[in-house]
Amino acid sequence: MRSLVTGVAGFIGSNLAERLIGEGHEVIGVDCFTDYYARSVKEKNIKGLLKERKFTFFEADISCVNLGEFLTGVDYVFHQAAQAGVRSSWGAEFDVYTSNNVLATQRLLEACKGLEMKRFIYASSSSVYGDSKELPLREQSFLKPVSPYGVTKLAGEHLCYSYWKNFAVPVISLRYFTVYGPRQRPDMAFHKFINAVLNNENIEIYGDGEQSRDFTFISDAIEGNMLAMKSDAAGEVFNIGGGFRVSVNEVLENIQEISGKVAQIVYRDVQKGDVRHTLADTSKAKECLGYTPKIDLNTGLTEHWKCLKGS
Ligand code: UGA
What we know:
Layout: E1 2-6, H1 11-22, E2 26-31, H2 39-45, E3 55-59, H3 68-71, E4 76-79, H4 94-112, E5 119-125, H5 148-167, E6 171-176, E7 179-180, H6 189-198, E8 202-206, E9 212-213, E10 216-217, H7 218-230, E11 237-240, E12 246-247, H8 248-259, E13 264-268, H9 283-289, H10 297-309
Parallel strand pairs: 1-2, 1-4, 2-3, 4-5, 5-6, 6-11, 7-10, 8-13
Antiparallel strand pairs: 9-12
This protein binds uridine-5'-diphosphate-glucuronic acid.
Uridine-5'-diphosphate-glucuronic acid binds next to helix 6 and strand 8.
């Protein structure tokens, strides 16, 4: 089996590529090392992969290179590359979001037209739902993103559907719900909170901390990809959630318990683009893919903590 993973040096891409290699796939990994966070962090993410005989890496921007050579003989495409981050997608930055999330996705889909691939998995996001009052969020819920980032991820989903409908590119979109665990992006909450506690620094909470998320441990998100890869649900969209919803304040209590340290918390303004609550209804993913999240918050956070602490 041969797989292409875009955004392979990122949090989810690198973990996914390792799992695929572990299952005997040959993996072509592509990443353009956007400057959203340090290149050194991404290089570290793929350090182990680069030693694998079955892994080939290309540094390239998929929005502007000829994609033919990456796609030759590929059975599965995992399109994880994106400009991430909900809160930083305003203003002039939007150019980068449209280029990396919309244009790059369209170019990749275009290059996949007519190829004999088995599955194309698109990394979507819970941010496509926006500030829905109705929880849990179902795939058929009303979609009204409240951040430019969410708008671009939804545009990507729509492009995927269009290429499936018109050209039979066998696309499945997975809406990830705030993924955490080893290698989480440095701008994300758990990474920042744990590091702040380890270094006795202030933790900035946006708003009152009562906003809540369905947090998904990385191994569950990866399992969602593996199940989608094997399924026959082309053209469909699935929520990939962690199976629980907790507030940011509860997360902090948990981190303090795990670390045995007292967090220094500073409350800041609510950030534009942040939704108040998310919770995934994963019944469709369960029924069609066999997906059931396995890692509870305490187990996942403990692992995340140990990883950042270096033990
Ligand atoms: C995350 C990812 O950053 C997106 O790329 C992804 O698409 C999205 O999840 C998703 O799965 O849909 P977010 O939910 O904002 O977005 O994740 P975090 O950055 O981990 O933030 C979680 C919560 O903590 C938010 O309510 C945020 O306001 C809060 N937070 C974050 C703080 O209070 N302080 C911080 O320093 C960081």
